[in-house]
TrEMBL record:
Lineage summary: Bacteria, Bacillati, Actinomycetota, Actinomycetes, Micrococcales
Protein name per Swiss-Prot or TrEMBL: Aspartate/glutamate racemase family protein
Keyword Isomerase attributed: yes
InterPro entries: Asp/Glu/hydantoin_racemase (IPR015942), Asp/Glu_race (IPR001920), Asp/Glu_racemase_AS_1 (IPR018187), Asp/Glu_racemase_AS_2 (IPR033134)
Keywords: Isomerase
């Protein structure tokens, strides 16, 4: 008999949805704060990347990914993608809340501005020219010198696992980053997977700001839990690839967050066929 997601439910669960690997850092951050939470990871390889797509298309795709996690009875769903949060968060909350809290992601411009400028924001080409980013800068960093930088090809290089391409894209973005920048905001959820390499390229004088820990803490607040790293460890309860049951691929081991998730166990629960 094929096991269903709830055949042996012993943990509470949180689902993460994204077009690709950007969700790894966010799932890893939550797993670090509350290792007893089961994780459901929903990627959309058939339709990635979301950045160039029309807003209504992104909304349709992220809603479909979120719906695919519902048989796992998640206690919350995290939209671990800035583009999908912009275009799909409102629709997801209208459909799923209050039964299932939905948490979005926002580039960490506010804490970077508080720390002091000049600030650079690395993002995809679409995001750097977007009204969304301009609105965040106007709201949280209006009095701070801020420089959007298109990290061309970096998300795609991370997704492919091409290490040489990752280094080349980081080097290009570093060259486009003005001298004297003190704070760097990672404006794409993929970039945090190579934050150590970004720091190495920019030097010790730049502080990197990312949002996985803040999102993990917000997720715990939404489901009424406090951080507690001492609780018994659960792991990855399911992997969905464009709605289809899948497994954690060994290629995720190229990134520290992916290695930690691989160690936590892959897909103990599968959808019934």
């Amino acid at each position: 008999m094929t096991e269903t997601p709830d055949s042996h439910r012993s943990t509470r669960r949180v689902a993460f949805v994204d077009s690709g690997l950007g969700l790894l850092g966010y799932a890893d951050a939550l797993h670090t704060l509350r290792p007893d939470l089961g994780l459901v990871l929903a990627l959309d390889p058939d339709n990635m990347p979301y950045g160039p797509r029309a807003p209504e298309d992104v909304q349709r795709l992220i809603v479909a990914s979120a719906r695919a996690t519902l048989p796992y009875a998640p206690d919350a769903i995290v939209v671990a993608c800035n583009t999908a949060s912009v275009h799909g968060l409102e629709a997801l909350r209208a459909e799923l809340e209050p039964a299932v809290p939905v948490v979005g992601t926002v580039p960490a411009i506010r804490p970077a501005a508080v720390a002091g400028g000049p600030v650079a924001v690395w993002a995809t080409a679409a995001t750097t020219s977007s009204d969304y980013l301009r609105g965040l800068v106007d709201a949280f960093a209006a009095d701070v010198e801020t420089h959007p930088v298109a990290a061309l090809g970096l998300a795609e290089a991370i997704e492919s696992g091409d290490q040489d391409a990752i280094d080349a894209c980081i080097a290009y973005a570093a060259q486009q980053t003005p001298a004297g920048v003190r704070s760097l905001v990672l404006g794409c959820t993929h970039y945090g997977l190579v934050a150590d390499r970004i720091v190495a390229a920019l030097g010790d004088g730049v502080t990197v700001f990312d949002s996985p820990v803040a999102v993990a803490r917000q997720t715990l607040r939404r489901i009424g839990l406090a951080p507690d790293a001492s609780v018994p460890q659960a792991g990855v309860d399911g992997v969905l690839l464009s709605g289809r049951p899948g497994e954690l691929p060994a290629s995720w081991g190229a990134f520290p967050a992916g290695r930690r998730l691989l160690r936590s166990g892959a897909g103990r629960h599968t959808l019934s066929s």
